[in-house]
Amino acid sequence: MPNLSHLHFRLPHWFSDVPFGTIWGLVWPQMMMLLCTIVINLTDIWAAGQLSADVQAAVGVSFQIQVFLLVFGISLGAGGMAAVSQSMGAGRRWRAQNYVGLALSSCILLSAGIAVLISFFQNAVLALLQTPAELVPATNYMVDVMLFGLPFACVTQVAGTLFRAARQVIEPLLIVMVSCLLNVAGDLCFGLGWLGMPAFGMGGIAWSTFASSLVSAVLSVVFLKKGGLIGRRFVPRLRWLRIGAPYLFKVALPACGNSMLWHGGYLVMFGITASLPDGVSALAGLTAGNRIESLLYMPANAFMVTASILVGNALGAGDRALARRTGLALFFLSGLSMSAVAACMWPFLPDFARFFSAEAPVQTQIVNYLFFNVLVVPFTVSGLVLHGVMNGAGATVYSLVVNTSCIWLVRLPLGWGLAHYVFHDAYGVFMAMFISMVIQTSAMVWVFFRKDWAGFALGAHAHRNHKEKA
User: Structural domain boundaries of the chain?
Assistant: First the structure.
């Protein structure tokens, strides 16, 4: 038997100093947060479906409008993530407090303004979304309540990002758990009348969501204050705003453009799928496949946010080498771990299809969708991590250029051509998703190694000559 004692197994040198314990400590609470969010969304849809198809459709439409409007809050969160994580890494808590106050106050003003604006054009928005006439009354009611609670939902969204930027992941986990309990209990008790409570139907579901958003927003501000992320002044002084605000919006604006163009691309992709001869089955397969696929991206999103936090911290401390090593480690760790999960799912794709649909044509479309999108998991997941690296560095312009180019210049034209002229089936759309994701991640890898993304950071020396006036 050969003597193997002379062999030594160790991690590659670029894994040195990578805080794997910290990574795990940041990832698992975020996975639990995302799980709670999935429970909330599924319970809303399920409870509405117990009332009627009209109510379920109204909940779905109002949810899609809310997701689109929250793009602005997500963008402010991206700017806050970069600024706060870098400030904490530089040991400048006062600067982090100023950015927290700026992000939250901007989010409140922007979301309130958007809610008022949409309320004036609400009927036009529903007409643009091709909402059937019989659904308009119920949808209007759901959208009214959603707009009323939009500032609270936006505060919760942005605050969660700011917590994570400061490595405070338990607080937002507790907040989302409370929100989940309130929302689920409200849907079941006041929406459906469980446990002998009065059943308010659609109103009970709508106002349960509002109540959970309100409580979550209040708890978010309380925990931010308790954690030292909100200073004595909620809104920074005007003199500091002239210095600090440009960086927040420099990061947030490309992130906003990226999110809007990405979501817009998905809407166009749904339109391409619906325009096919078997459009109904194809669209049902796309929708169900996307829901199944989302389970894979729950931990992937946690890795992405963790990359933003740790890369931002490292750049704030002026350690570009550590930022690069951390990004590489998370790139490989996420890709390998989620590929293993995807491999375990692979034999059960037909079983997933049968669970979500009893119709053979829809089952075929689900399997086709999952075939390509599970196969591309190594690229999709690792690409998400590089997206998080760019967020942490403040280099969101790279994500904007790469992501939107790949969906608008590759995925959509290729999907249209393959679906309508080659396969005459949604198989072409799903293949285009696979090809565009491979190209997208490859482009992000090129950016990571060849572009100076770390140069977008504030750096530990930023604002050195400016004192905070509390």
Answer: 16-236, 248-463
